[in-house]
């Protein structure tokens, strides 16, 4: 525990290499030290040594198979190394444990969007919206989805919510006006542009 604390202090000071060495000593003393293994994974991730980070989180997964933070790290690391199928698998496993987490749902939507599976991307973004209707990234994505699919009137409520949350951000009003214009409601578009 002392070496883990020394590692934490080094990490707080910004010395990731020194922290890594302390965590390694802690693991040498106790190979099942969960805090040291987890922190080693995080340090390797911070140092962009993703394969090494994966090794430590996989060791942790063998000890704690359904621990959400470990599953998240495994999913995110697979995403960082470009193994999208594995990332999706880990995120889905995480979602089975915490089914109402909007950040995981949004992350899955983002991955599917990047992978050009718009149907799955829409599904997960909309689920994220159901649980957290104030996430600007999700509101923006859903609005853009409807505009892209030529149903701009369905995008308006998402952009209106975003405009309520960021009243000084002109982007949202411009998007609302554009949606009105695209749907043929020119007077509403003009009124929106004037505000």
Automatic annotation (TrEMBL):
TPR repeats lie at residues 34-67, 68-101. It holds the Pfam family TPR_16. This is Uncharacterized protein. It comes from the Eukaryota. One of its GO terms (biological process) is non-motile cilium assembly. The keyword Membrane does not apply. GO terms for molecular function: kinesin binding. Keywords: TPR repeat. SUPFAM superfamilies: TPR-like. One of its GO terms (cellular component) is non-motile cilium. Gene3D superfamilies: Tetratricopeptide repeat domain.
């Amino acid at each position: 525990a002392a070496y883990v604390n020394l590692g934490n202090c080094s990490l707080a000071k910004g010395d990731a290499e020194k922290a890594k060495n302390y965590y390694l000593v802690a693991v040498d003393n106790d190979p099942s030290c969960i805090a040291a293994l987890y922190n080693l994974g995080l340090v390797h991730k911070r140092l962009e040594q993703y394969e090494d980070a994966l090794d430590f989180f996989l060791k942790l997964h063998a000890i704690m198979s359904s621990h959400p933070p470990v599953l998240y790290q495994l999913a995110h690391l697979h995403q960082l190394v470009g193994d999208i199928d594995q990332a999706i698998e880990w995120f889905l496993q995480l979602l089975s444990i915490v089914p109402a987490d909007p950040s995981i749902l949004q992350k899955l939507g983002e991955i599917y969007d990047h992978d050009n599976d718009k149907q799955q991307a829409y599904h997960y973004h909309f689920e994220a919206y159901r649980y957290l209707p104030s996430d600007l990234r999700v509101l923006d994505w859903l609005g853009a989805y409807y505009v892209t699919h030529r149903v701009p009137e369905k995008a308006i409520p998402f952009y209106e919510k975003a405009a309520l949350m960021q009243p000084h951000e002109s982007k949202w009003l411009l998007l609302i006006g554009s949606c009105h214009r695209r749907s043929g409601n020119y007077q509403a578009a003009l009124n929106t542009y004037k505000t």
